[in-house]
Every structure is written in structure tokens, then in C-alpha cells.
Amino acid sequence: MGADVFHSEVPLTVNGEARRPTVDHRSTLLDVLREQLGLTGAKKGCDHGQCGACTVLVDGRRVNSCLLLAVSLEGREVITVEGLAPAGGDLHPLQRAFVDRDAFQCGYCTPGQICSAVGAIAEARAGRASHVTDPAADVGAPVELTRDEIRERLSGNICRCGAYPHIVEAVEDVTR
Amino acid sequence: MPDTTSALGAPTERREGPAKVTGAARYAAEHLPGGLAHAWPVPATIARGEVASVDDTAALAVPGVVGVLTHLNAPRLGEADDATLAVLQDARVPHRGWYVALVVADTLEAAREGAAAVTVTYAEEPHDVTLDAASPAAYVPEDPDGNPDEHTRGNPDEAFAAAPVRVDVTYEVPPLHNHPMEPHAATARWEEGRLTVHDSSQGATAVRQTLASLFKLPEEQITVVSEHVGGGFGSKGTPRPHVVLASMAARETGRPVKLALPRRHLAAVVGHRSPTVQRLRLGAEADGTLTTLIHEVTSHTSRVKEFVETGAAVSRVMYPSPHARTGNRVLPLDVPSPSWMRAPGEAPGMYALESAMDELAVALGLDPVELRLRNDTRTEPDTGKPFSSRHLAECLREGARRFGWAERDPRPRSRAEGPVLIGSGVAAATYPVLVSPSRASAHAYPDGGYVIRVNATDIGTGARTVLAQVAADALGVPVDRVRTEVGSTDLPAAPLAGGSSGTASWGWAVHEACTRLARRLAGQLGQQLPPEGVGASADTEGTPDTNYAESEYARHAFGAHFAEVGVDAVSGEVRVRRLLGVFAAGHILNARTARSQFIGAMTMGLGMALTEHSTMDKAFGDFAESDLASYHVPVNADVPAMEAHWIDEDDPHLNPMGSKGIGEIGIVGTAAAIGNAVHHATGVRLRELPITPDKLVTAL
């Protein structure tokens, strides 16, 4: 399928690799990843930005890939759960911690939880406050990821199996 | 000599863990065969009536759409035991959301656009979707033994009237939705008359049987794979319309077809927990001894099939009383078909019973833990059979000790931190021990490895791991020498992952196959194994030990839940501060994955108590909360300190592993414990779930 009035070629980087998928202008990043690029790590749980299972990193920020039109991502850098650890190498520390803590059961929300946690850790380090951050804290100073901070910052990622306490422990393992 | 330390009970790491955390694990919608087409279903927009006409002209004009299936052109299916699977077979619309068409297209986007372009007109009929417990149309269904599902002992009405202390209360639980994270999906393809389906199912064996019947094929010509399943909680326990539609569309179009249901469709087509109206009458002596227990439950079902939310069943198990009536009634309405949701019957039934027990404790001025201890029993009240084991009292005492129950001031509204009222509550839990016949095979290979094959389904329970542990112990080898293959009908047939019975059923067959293999190997000591290995198989069908119905024992798991809540007296918001569960469920086979199941089910119970609620809209016959923005499941910030403990039971009347099943009991007592804690915190007794700020703030 080539570019036409309904389709465009979109050059972008996915997991460090230059890609040029031709996308339907209606396609979300999630559907392009899953259906065109064969990267099914990002999951479709609701397709409406309500569950977080599709979370990936775009230019280092966590996003719901079901809410991003792929055609808008020219030149952007996308990292999915498949790209967190080097191919054939060790697991990413968060991936290892999730296994160690049994921080999942069915595993369907897990790639989103892990990508979301990577993003949340970076946000806290960059001094971005959350709903539970002490309002008196220095603006822009790194935020310590207490259990309450982790719970709050990962509340956009639903886990119906109820692995939340173990997810918090896994994130603590890599931030402590 | 290999290390033969027992593998069972150890916290063995989940085998599919690395695949799940790296995105390598593939679920049903993640197979991309060449030529794949995408399907999108069209739900009915009326609550009752018939399809009058379908105009697919505009849909077929959408670029990329390859076909539109309706009842007018869909192939005729064979017999379905489950009428919800007779999709696109006639014009009848039994409820809103029933599928009336399916659009197949080259791309997902085109399928979706095509579905929106199908014009359906209806001959609408008046509908009734209101659960009225007094409706004359409600009836007493048959229980699983074929008897009326109303059991009576003594003279409960007279005894209740004469009881010195009485509680007469009605509790209500709204419709609830399973909402596993992976929406139901299937990828189907036909090759030379053979059907291969990747399905999101809790039991591929039953899916294959059903597809064979519907598509009039021998089972050998069908393979159903459910390798990784993104949760189910009962909603994937039976074949669902998506797998029939995908298979049908693949055959009609001659292409592989993928159908992943949109989240918003799930409420109508994959089952829900029926709402229940439950009247409880408890009569007791002044010392707390129950004299009467009357538990009457009314739930709804659809016009398509009878499903009964058997809430009263728990009152046949929990507490002895000389006089009792326990009955389940069901009212057919123009609603989507209800089905299993985690601990069907037990979860809402115990919410009502254990809340009423708390009310009785208050009426008696007796500690609620003590009230339950005074009504403990060694025989099942309804059948008179002895329990194979029952450690409810031990769970209550151990939980009370760990929770610090002794420090609790029993007076409601006795503790506050600023505007936050703090209270604690307790509730008991029970779940039956179930088992089904299963097959399995075990092979030993010359390299020292072993392979276990069984069509078990790992819906997140860790089945692969625990079955390897079972095999390792039966073979007397280290667990890492054992590989497990599960999740395909090409493997020995096995029952579903449901009813907390998977591990018991599959494990029994695995244990048997491994025991036979070990015996064969013992006869060949010192000999080199042939390259194809040495195998043994087992089938527990017909073995008397697995026939619990004929048994002289009653088998149930028990537990105790403790909750501490903080209630904001200004906003009415309830926050759970601590949840603690202690369970007696036989021998716990994997401490790590068991803990995850217990706390996971307790989390779902927290949702049942505080956030989960669906409304059957009277005008439209539609569940108003059909997505995850409106149907509120707990999120990370809702879940505080969570503890699960267990009392390891040594019960010789179970299975070779000595296990009872743990997937469901964790939800059973949670909602009552939280509701009782809210009463203790505030003095307000709400009898309708969930306990939301709007209800509480007006009562405070």
C-alpha cells in the first residue's frame, strides 16, 4: 500500500531502528505497532486511554499509544517494552524486578506497567510533582518515589489481576 | 542422586515471567498470519424485538471491506448447548448489544468504519429489564443435583418469630463486570478443511467441542490454542460469540480472520455477575447460638439462557442452625446473559450473610469474631456430612492476632483522625472444593529432561509452574528438569481454568501420569532411553476418588478477612487502609503465585465493596457503565497494605497434592469485611453495594 489521500509514509524510530510504515491516517500508534510492525508487546485493553495497557515511551515520555495518531509521529522516537532491554541481553532492571516480585499474573497489563514505571521514574527525577507530592516541596527538585508516590503515578495502569502491591515493590526495587 | 527436596509449596518463579515482561508472550489477537482480515461486530440497538432489515450497501462500499455477515447470509450452524453462541442465525434480538452483523475488512480501520455504516432497522417490542424480587415471574430453579434450589430444615418461620434476638435485613449487589484486561479475542484460519483458532479462553477443550458441534466437524479437525490469556475471572470460562464469529468469517471469506471485541461490547456479550436482592433473617439465642437462618436470593437471567447467581448456597455451608431455609430464585428479563464472575454465588452470598452476621453481633453486643467461633461446626449443616477439613476458627484467630483485633474498641464511631473516621471489620469466607476429570501425559528423554503435556490454561495463575512442581515431586526430580506444555487442544484434553479447580484437576492427572512414568523408568534402571523417550499417560475420568458428589465428606476451603477503613466524614469517601486475609485451602502448592492470587482476589473484592457498579438502564436495556472510565475497577492508589496468609492444611480427602483451590476464595469475604468496617467507623449500615460517597455522605 502506498501513500495516497488516506495514507502517508511516516518516518520514525522504533526501538532504535528507523522505520517508514505507510499508515492509514486513522491508525493509532498502538494499531501500527501491533498490526503493521508486529510489535505486540503494547496491549489493547480499552482503546480509549482508560487502562494504560498500551503505554509506550515517545521521546522518553510515557503515552497511551491508543490515543496517538501514528501519522502525527514523524521523526519521533518510540520505545516499546520490546525495546527496553538489548536484544538477547539481560532483562531491563524493571523487567527483572517484575519477575522477582511476581508483579503480574495474566501479564496483559505488564508491558504497559513497565513502560509507565520507566516514564514515572524519569518524571520524578525531573522534579515533576504528582497529586500526592508535598506542595511545600521545592519546585523542580527530584521527587522521592515513596510508596504513595508510586501508587499515585501508576494509577493510570489498571491491573485486573490485582498485582498492585507487588508492582509497587518492583518499582521500589529499582529506585531505592 | 538428584535433589528430591519437595518442589510443592516452594515459591517457584513463574515460568512465563520473562516472556510476559518483554512482550514476547503472544495472546489470542497477536497472531498475524498472511492475508489476515479483521472483523468488527455490530451490536443491536434495541432491548427486545427483531431485525426488520439490514442495509449493507454503504458498508460494502467502504474501501477494504470484504464482506458483511448477517442472519440473512450467514451459514447455518449446528446445535449449540449455549444459545448465546447461535450468532447470526435468526432475526431475534433478545437484548441490547446482541450481535446482528459482522463486518470483515482488510484492515481494522476499514472493519470499524464498515460496521458503523451498516444500517439495521428493527421491529421493537416492549422490554422489561427491572429486577423486582416480588415479581411473580421469578421462579425457583433446579440446583446442580436437579432438585429445587430451595432447601428447608425444621420450621424456620416459626423459629425466627420465636428467636430472642433477630436480624431481618435485605442486601443488594448490583450487576458487576469481569473486565479482564485482555478483551475477548480470536484469530481463526481454515486450511484444507482444518480449523485453527487462537482464542482467549479459560478452557480450549470446551471451545473445540463447541466449534465441532457448531461447524459440524470432527474434533480432530480443529485446534484451539490458548497459550497466554489476559485474565478471565469466569468470563472466558465458556466459549463466547467472538470465537464463533471469527471462525465463521474465516470460512466465509477464505482468509484468516481476527476478531478482538471492543471493550465497550463486553458488558453485553461475555457475561456479567447478575444483580442480587438478598433477604437474610437470622435468629439467635442470647449467647449468639443461631437457631434460624433464612437466606433468600433473587437474581436475574436473560431470555436466552438460565444462569443463576446462587448466593444462598453459602448458608448451607457456614453455620449450623436447627431451622433454616436457603433458596435461590431467578427472574428472566430482557437483559444480557449473566454468567460466572469470580466466586459466582459465594461472593455476593457471603457479602450478605457476613454483613448480616455483623448486624447480629451488634444486636447481641457480642464480638463478631466470637459470634462466628460460637457458630463453628465440624459437619456441613445442609448435608450433615463431616467436613474433610475446616479451619475457619483457626483462620479467624490467626487473622485477629495478626490484625491486632484485640485492641479494637467495639463501639462504632469510636476512633477518628481529624475528619477521618476509622473502623475495622471482619468477615468469613468459604469456597467449595471442585475437581473435574483430566488427562495428561509425561515423558522422559535421554538428555535427562521430562515433558508434561496437558491442555491446561494459564490465565495468570501460574499453571505451567505449579504443574511442573507437581510433576517434579511425583517423579522425584528437580523442578527445572521438567518442562510443561499447556494451552492447546493438540495436548491431552483437560477441563477449564475455573471454579478454583484447575490445579486440582490437571495436577491429579499429571501426578498420575508421572507416577506411572516413574514406575516404568524404575523397571528400566541403567538402560539408555530411546531418542523418542519413554512416556506414560493418565485419565482421571471415572476414578472414584474424583467423584466428590458421591463422597461421604463435604469439602470446602475457608478463610477470614479483616479490613481497616478510613471514612472522610465530610466527603463520605471510604479509603481502605489495611486488608488482611487468612485462608485454609489445603496444601498451598506455590507460595509465590498463591499469594498473588489471594491478594488479587482481595483487590477485586475491594472493588466490589467500594467502586464497582453497573446500572441496567430501564429505558434502553443497556448497562450504563460499559467501559473502564465509567466502570471503576480498583487502581494502584486504591490498594493499601495488603496481606495474605494461610494455614497449611493436611487433608487426606482431597487429591494427591492435598490442595483445595485458591483462585476465588480471596474475593469472598472482602466486601463484607469492608462494609462491616465502614459501619464500625461511622455507625452507618449501608446494605447496597458499592459503598460510594453519595450514599454515605447523606447517611452520615
UniProtKB/TrEMBL annotation, chain A:
Query: Which InterPro entries does the record cross-reference, listed alphabetically?
Result: 2Fe-2S-bd, 2Fe-2S-bd_dom_sf, 2Fe-2S_ferredoxin-like_sf, 2Fe-2S_ferredoxin-type, 2Fe2S_fd_BS, Aldehyde_Oxdr_Iron-Sulfur, Beta-grasp_dom_sf
Pathway(s): Alkaloid degradation; nicotine degradation
- Pfam families of this UniProt entry? Fer2, Fer2_2
Gene3D superfamilies assigned: 3.10.20.30, [2Fe-2S]-binding domain (1.10.150.120)
Question: PROSITE patterns under this entry?
Answer: 2FE2S_FER_1, 2FE2S_FER_2
Q: Does the keyword Iron-sulfur apply?
A: yes
Report whether Metal-binding shows up as a keyword of the record. yes
Residues covered by the 2Fe-2S ferredoxin-type domain: 8-84
Q: Which UniProt keywords apply?
A: 2Fe-2S, Iron, Iron-sulfur, Metal-binding, Oxidoreductase
One of the record's GO molecular function terms: metal ion binding
Extract the PANTHER family matched here.
Answer: OXIDOREDUCTASE WITH IRON-SULFUR SUBUNIT, OXIDOREDUCTASE, IRON-SULPHUR BINDING SUBUNIT-RELATED-RELATED
- Which protein are we looking at? 2Fe-2S iron-sulfur cluster binding domain-containing protein
UniProtKB/TrEMBL annotation, chain B:
Residues covered by region (Disordered):
528-547
Instruction: Tell me the lineage of the source organism.
Output: Bacteria, Bacillati, Actinomycetota, Actinomycetes, Kitasatosporales
The question of whether Oxidoreductase is a record keyword is answered with yes
Superkingdom, natural source: Bacteria
The record places domain Aldehyde oxidase/xanthine dehydrogenase a/b hammerhead at 22-126
The leader peptide range reads none
Q: Which UniProt keywords apply?
A: Molybdenum, Oxidoreductase
The molecule here is called: Xanthine dehydrogenase
